[in-house]
Design goal:
This protein has about 325 residues and is an alpha/beta fold. Helices cover about 45% and strands about 20% of the residues. A 6-stranded parallel beta sheet has the order 2-1-3-4-5-11, sandwiched between helices. A 6-stranded mixed beta sheet has the order 7-6-8-9-10-12, with helices on both faces. The longest helix is centred in the first third of the chain and has 35 residues.
């Protein structure tokens, strides 16, 4: 009996040790699998997640890549307690394989960190850098904005439309100029008001500016490219019974009685494609600069709402899409 007792105890000890070793092996295998995936860090704009626009779209592109188990990623939202430079520095110090920054508003901070980490690969969205370790994705957003202008020109009853931008930065100047040229392609004598809020994150300010553009200046269609400031503008435009064009993502659900269409800048698709290209090319980009537009399906319009085009207008719209895609129509940009 005593011998059987010792045997049982010994077997129990062996079983426990076996389970412990197997558990450790299992944990190590899981960690190793995670470690082999590409680590991506993204620094958003100060507006951050929840803007229902640029930041959310970029985040969605990484979520798709993560769900397909090709990457693991983390993100930072600059604000009062974290500068963009510090956010880039954290990712670089932690040796992330790829660090992404959104818009030219974070470019200077990215470049400071990239200069300190010359072997680290960065990707800048919506701007370009001279530094060799910063690749870029830029969009010919003026092409999609041109089409937005065409729809605004077809929709206006007052022959008076407006553009409401967030901050006065180069990429939004491209939005503005494309929109204005699209309006004048179908309504040569239309008035186009241009207003910049100076802020991407102030919904109340967006409401005030939209009201001024409608009530004081007379615009009846406004193209809104202003992040959270734009969300406030869209709700005010709907409240006042006028029409709006959204941007970056389909913003119809924000103001269903006002939105005619939204100009899509498919940031999610472009980031997803860029990350996969980076992985397939052994953590390098085949091209330092990626520039995409209507022909690459990187920009365009959503379905139309609250407007019915005549057969003639449909034909004009379709012809203009083809002419832009083929390069027959060139949007003039003042740099």
């Amino acid at each position: 009996m005593k011998t059987n007792k010792y045997i049982r105890a010994g077997l129990a000890m062996i079983l426990s040790l076996t389970l412990l070793v197997l558990g450790a092996c299992s944990a190590n295998t899981k960690t190793t699998a995670t470690d082999t995936r590409t680590k991506v860090g993204i620094v958003l704009t100060e507006v951050g997640l929840g803007d229902r626009s640029f930041n959310d779209a970029a985040f969605d592109g990484l979520v798709q890549a993560r769900d397909e188990k090709s990457i693991v990623f983390d993100y930072r939202e600059p604000g009062a307690n974290l500068t963009a430079e510090a956010a880039f520095g954290e990712f670089a110090a932690d040796q992330f394989d790829l660090i992404i920054g959104l818009s030219d508003t974070v470019q200077a901070d990215m470049e400071k960190v990239a200069a300190k980490y010359p072997d680290q690969q960065f990707l800048l969205i919506d701007s370009k850098s001279e530094l060799s370790n910063i690749a870029s994705i830029s969009f010919r957003a003026e092409e999609g904005s041109y089409l937005a202008g065409v729809i605004a020109g077809m929709a206006t009853k007052e022959n008076h439309v407006g553009f409401l931008g967030g901050m006065e930065i180069p990429v939004l100047h491209n939005f503005e100029q494309g929109f204005e040229q699209g309006v004048h392609a179908v309504k040569p004598d239309a008035t186009v008001d241009v207003v910049y809020a100076g802020d991407f994150g102030n919904a109340d300010l967006g409401e005030q500016l939209a009201a001024q553009m409608i009530q004081e200046k007379g615009a009846d269609v406004i193209y809104v490219a202003a992040g959270l400031t734009g969300v406030g503008a869209l709700t005010e435009i709907q409240k006042l019974g006028k029409y709006a064009i959204g941007v970056d993502t389909d913003q119809f659900f924000l103001a269903e009685k006002a939105i005619l269409t939204s100009m899509l800048k498919n940031v999610d698709v472009s980031i997803y494609n860029a990350v996969n290209s980076f992985i397939q090319n052994n953590h390098a980009f085949p091209h330092k600069e990626i520039n995409e537009g209507l022909a690459e399906n990187a920009v365009g319009l959503t379905a139309l709402h609250n407007i019915t085009l005549s057969d003639e207008q449909k034909q004009t719209f379709d012809d203009l899409i083809k002419q832009i895609s083929s390069g027959q129509i060139k949007i003039t940009l003042d740099q």
